[in-house]
Specification:
Length: about 375
């Protein structure tokens, strides 16, 4: 029992040191890692493709190193163990994907639209048809924070949710732009894609933990027992890789937010409506701290929100919204905060929509 507790303490220490080291490295280089908003839709697509290739290529390397380490320093089949741990990660993410809509509906207190709110359903149905999709279920969340999100699974179906706070805050044309953004997430299958890519950091963490654990407990059995520190070292490297992979997944999620913004602009023909909506929502969070607390206490679907609710903004929600949009475009961003965020800074999203607006007349398909 004492040996087990000691090993668990060492595992926690190793993980903490690795996380601190990775954060320190990225903090120093955050300004080099984080770039500006995509210059065009083509550049955005290229960035998404390169990000996926980097994740998959990195994971193949991780699996190879893990299999080699397990085979070289334990009596276990390295390929078999790495494969089994990858299957475990897949099972964990699959269960989350299948049942998360039911949990989200419960946590965010969703309901069907009431009389007087049917126009939301009509808007979503029209946007879905224009996007070539089967209309999703439309629900309203009884939350005061102004936000919207899209989610779903094969057993629960697809949903677009808007909060009561969003409907109170935005005029209809801006609500429509937000709904188009969420329909864009469904068209691009973002929930499925992001969860699939999330397998990579989860699997890297599981395999890295297994190697560190085996090393702390003295290695494997049989003739190959005898180099526990090598196992700890390789496991630590995989834990670090898992942290990096998670940052890359967050980067990919930020790119998909730009992609959903592009969908909204193209399907509605009004990038300005989405810009105004983003500005109003950000201003509402800044000047209503209780909304931030409500968002903080319900973080489960925060990755799915139209905006990240915990970022700050120095502007008054009472000023002219177009003036606010222009001020926000010039706002400086914190590279380190962005690096760990699932959403791009609002200033970058506004600038991206500007670039898209200058080309929107010549874009018919994307």
């Amino acid at each position: 029992m004492l040996e087990f507790l000691f090993a668990w303490w060492w595992l926690g220490l190793v993980e903490s040191l690795i996380l601190a080291g990775v954060i320190a490295l990225v903090a120093v280089n955050a300004h080099r890692i984080v770039g500006d908003a995509p210059q065009s839709l083509a550049a955005l697509r290229a960035s998404m493709g390169l990000t996926v290739l980097a994740l998959i290529g990195g994971y193949i390397v991780v699996l190879g190193v893990a299999a080699w380490a397990l085979d070289a320093f334990t009596g276990l089949s390295g390929t078999g163990v790495a494969f089994m741990l990858s299957l475990l990660a897949m099972a964990m993410v699959l269960v989350q994907w299948l049942f998360s809509p039911y949990i989200i509906n419960m946590v965010y207190r969703t309901r069907e639209p009431l009389p007087g709110e049917e126009w939301i359903v009509a808007e979503v149905e029209q946007l879905a048809r224009r996007s070539g999709l089967k209309p999703p279920k439309v629900v309203v969340s009884e939350m005061n924070m102004p936000n919207a999100f899209a989610y779903g699974s094969p057993i629960a179906g697809s949903y677009v949710a808007v909060t009561r706070g969003l409907l109170r805050l935005l005029p209809r044309d801006e609500v429509r732009a937000v709904l188009a953004h969420e329909v864009g997430h469904l068209k691009h299958r973002d929930v499925t894609v992001i969860l699939a890519l999330s397998l990579i950091p989860v699997a890297a963490f599981l395999i890295g933990r297994a190697l560190v654990w085996a090393g702390i407990l003295g290695g494997g059995g049989g003739e190959k027992r005898g180099n526990p520190m090598a196992l700890v070292a390789v496991g630590a490297a995989l834990l670090a890789a898992g942290t990096v992979f998670q940052l890359i997944v967050s980067h990919f999620n930020r790119l998909r937010e730009y992609y959903a913004d592009a969908h909204s602009a193209l399907v509605t023909g009004s990038p300005r409506s989405l810009q105004r909506a983003l500005a109003r929502i950000h201003a509402a969070y800044e000047h209503n701290p209780h909304l931030v607390e409500e968002a903080r206490s319900n973080e489960m679907a925060s990755m799915l929100f139209i905006v990240a609710p915990l970022t700050s903004l120095t502007a008054s929600p009472l000023v002219d919204v177009d003036y606010l949009v222009e001020r926000l475009k010039e706002q400086e961003t914190n590279p380190l905060v962005e690096l760990f965020s699932t959403h791009p800074p609002v200033s970058k999203r506004l600038r991206f929509l500007d670039r898209l607006a200058s080309r929107i007349g010549g874009i018919e398909h994307y």
